[in-house]
Write a structure and sequence with these properties.
- The chain is an alpha/beta fold.
- It folds into 2 domains: 36-150 and 289-372 and 393-412, Rossmann fold, CATH 3.40.50.2300; 156-256, Rossmann fold, CATH 3.40.50.2300.
- Helix content is 42%, strand content 21%.
- The protein has helices at 5-31, 49-68, 88-101, 113-125, 156-167, 179-194, 213-222, 237-245, 265-268, 271-274, 290-303, 317-336, 341-348, 396-399, and strands at residues 36-42, 77-83, 106-109, 129-132, 140-142, 145-147, 170-176, 198-205, 226-230, 254-256, 278-281, 353-356, 359-363, 370-380, 383-393, 411-413.
- A 5-stranded parallel beta sheet has the order 2-1-3-4-6, with helices on both faces. Strands 11, 12, 13, 14 and 15 form a 5-stranded antiparallel beta sheet that branches.
- Strand 9 (226-230), helix 8 and strand 10 (254-256) form a beta-alpha-beta unit.
- The relative contact order is 0.13.
């Protein structure tokens, strides 16, 4: 090729230097490697920021905890967070961004069912694993999606008979006017009737409604034994304030499938306005177990006390299920020994079970939901007093419509026939 001796020696020296460096590189790459990217799509601003910010904070805490224990597959995790600003259009664009541009290995995110149904098909199309960690109405059947929050068969089924036995059989339901409120209110009606009661009326409200005066008058006229609230978001807190101001708090009690699930509701309204509201969730910060106490202490030491005392995250079903979802995904990666999406899914489908702050959490391979403990609680002076616990409740509602072992290509959200 016409190369002279001097050029040959220079080239050989350069080549030798490169070979020497490359001999060291594989060891460094194996030990360090590129960071494993984890996507977090939560509403850190906008109308749902009260729930989204703690979810993102606790997701970051989980990432740091895994890294402190050595990471995964010899590599560190890095959180790619994106503020979806309570905006459906941003959910679509940011889901595409973290999947295609950032190339994350998994996405944890979404609060409302509407946001989930924007994220879920996008991530399935882009072959990016998705964890939805919010309590919801049940029925998602998608092998690319894992749901760690509670469903009505786990919570509403326990809440309804408890409050009917306590207060009476005539129920008036008020609900958010979107798929969570519509479907969950149908579950309320089913469980009320199964327990010998009657739903006098079900009224629906858009998420931005703040005036509940006419509704309160309708409830007064109907004279129910109790009100079942399936309201959602900051605007709907107006109902509880106006209910107390109208003098109804002492006349007709309230149970709720949502109150306190985001954590801020008992802080934003007074104890007089919220006292005695009964709920049922998969996690409360007052769970009296060593695992939960240790978890709360670790979170507070790293991120600070929860509001109103500090700026740390509120620990609720939404934020703690996000932590647990991250830990379940990490356990799946460890078991699979790879980040390959399908191999991680198969590992998770083996029935991975972890002892978590909420109790034992086990992935149901048939539905990709979880079997978990649930708790009934009464709100007293802004603190949830646990009344009763129910061990290892399966997602029976979703099991009735979804079998991913038999039909692994399912990709839909069933509205379960009641």
């Amino acid at each position: 090729m016409g190369i002279d001796r001097r050029g040959f020696l220079k080239a050989s020296a350069a080549s030798g230097a490169m070979l020497g460096a490359s001999a060291l590189m594989p060891k460094f790459a194996t030990a360090q490697g590129a960071d494993i990217l984890v996507g977090g799509l939560h509403d850190e601003t906008g109308g749902l920021d009260f729930a989204g910010k703690p979810m993102q904070q606790v997701l970051g805490f989980a990432v740091d905890e895994i890294n402190a224990q050595g990471g995964l597959l010899g590599r560190k995790l890095k959180l790619i967070g994106a503020d979806t600003q309570s905006n459906m259009q941003l959910y679509a664009s940011l889901a595409q961004q973290v999947a295609l541009k950032d190339k994350v290995s998994v996405v944890h995110g979404g609060i409302t069912s509407a946001s989930r149904e924007v994220i879920r098909p996008a991530l399935r199309r882009f072959n990016t694993l998705y964890f939805y960690n919010t309590l919801y109405e049940g029925g998602v059947c998608d092998r690319n999606c894992f749901c760690t929050g509670t469903t009505p068969a786990q919570t509403v089924q326990k809440l309804v008979p408890h409050v009917m036995k306590k207060w009476g059989k005539k129920v008036y339901t008020i609900a958010a006017d979107y798929n969570y409120g519509q479907i969950t209110s149908a579950w309320v009606k089913k469980y009320v009737e199964e327990n010998g009661g009657q739903v006098l009326s079900t009224d629906f409200f858009p998420l931005d409604v703040t005036n509940f005066g006419p509704t309160i008058q309708k409830i007064q006229a109907a004279k129910p034994d109790l009100v079942m609230s399936v309201l959602v978001g900051a605007a709907h807190l107006g109902f509880y304030r106006q209910w107390a101001a109208a003098g109804m708090k002492k006349q007709i009690p309230i149970a709720s499938t949502t109150f306190g699930a985001g954590g801020t509701e008992p802080i934003l309204i007074t104890p007089e306005e919220s006292e005695g509201i009964i709920s049922c969730y998969g996690y409360y910060p007052t769970i009296d177990t060593p695992a939960n106490k240790a978890f709360k202490a670790k979170v507070q030491a790293k991120l600070g006390a929860a509001p109103p005392a500090g700026n740390g995250p509120l620990l609720t079903e939404l934020s703690v299920c996000t932590y647990e979802g991250m830990m379940l995904w990490a356990a799946g990666v460890k078991k699979a020994g790879t980040l390959d999406r399908m191999k991680v899914i198969e590992a998770l489908e083996s029935g991975i079970s972890l002892d978590m702050p909420s109790g034992k959490v086990t992935i149901d391979p048939v539905t990709h939901h979880v079997t978990r403990d649930v708790y009934l609680a009464d709100l007293k002076n802004r603190e949830f007093v646990i009344l009763e616990s129910f061990a290892q409740q399966p997602p029976a509602d979703t099991q009735a419509v979804c079998d991913l072992k038999k039909n692994p290509n399912e990709n839909q959200h069933y509205q379960i026939k009641l």
